[in-house]
Amino acid sequence: MQDGVAFVTFNRQGGPRGDREVISQNWWMGMASRPARGGELTFSLMLSLDPLTQYGDGYAALFQTGETWDGRPIVDRQHPHDFLMQAGVMWRVPVGDGYHLTISGAPVGEPTLGPAAFMHRQSAAENLAAPLAHHTLDSTHIAHGVIAAGIDKNEWAVESSIFRGREPDAQRWDLLDPGPLDSWAVRAWYRPSAKLEFQASHGFLNEPEELERVDVRRTTVSGSWVSTREGNRWTAITAAFGRNDKREGGGNAVWLAEATRRMGSLTVFGRGEAVQAETDLLLTGVHAHSHGDQPAARDWVGALSAGVTREVGAWRRFEIAAGADLTVCRVPAALQPAYGNSPVSFHVFLRVRPPAAMGRMWNHVMTRSH
Fold first, then answer.
1. pTM for the whole thing?
2. Which of 5, 79, 215, 337 is deepest in the core (most CB within 10 A)?
3. pLDDT in tens, 25-54
């Protein structure tokens, strides 16, 4: 099976720190399975042309941080993804009494940490922007070097993994960022029905940021609900909480809720976030650290977005839609001199999806086959 999407986007970020540009966010993923030694062997591959269709530091996104470019932390922009986003293999086999064992590995792939990555979540199917909560919820979906194992029975699953904690470097076209598997994560799933799933996870990330060199412990909890699909009519909702705790003390938390409602050719979507941002990083472009009882400054930023898409045609079974969204931010007092009181941003875009005869790979995680 295959899935993918390409957005061609006019991006306008408002306020004094805003920008305007035309870029494309895109990815493609393929998956193939076959019987193997009493179980099922699955191969997955995910690619992106973000390095070609975006700037070196990605696309403008107010209050977004994470990764580096040209020797500096990326601030107010969302980094582009590497050309190779995933190359994994998974073997799932029954082991008796209703239990199944899953073993997976990938030179580039997903550890067992956090909910499904934002580009796979059905609740964000038409939302082209990464959430501000990305680097506290699901940024490890492109970790280099992943070995995972899990056991599941009926509605329950428990899995663990080791991986390289460092985030990808600024060389977006190289296939691997080699290094020790120095981080770990554990995750539990509860899926009481085909519509509903919950996850809780915790992991240790060894110095994920190249310029900060600070270990992080990440904790996430999320729940997702999808209505019964009736052709092109469905609803998907996700709510999540995440927290990063750093070695020197202090941490930052995020809350996220997002939803998508498709009604035939028309789709509406929205996202609300509250993010505890690193104030000094946003203002100066430099990571600040806690000192004794004096934690590094963090302030709550709020973002509320809403959008709509409409299918405008098809070409050789490629689905084509036009859309737009609008985002309003709540800015804390400490950041208002730099960002303004309530900057308003928007995207106008054309969206293309390839044929998917076997269905969309929504809510995909590497440790579970479709």
1. 0.94
2. 79
3. 999 999 999 999 999 999 999 999 999 999
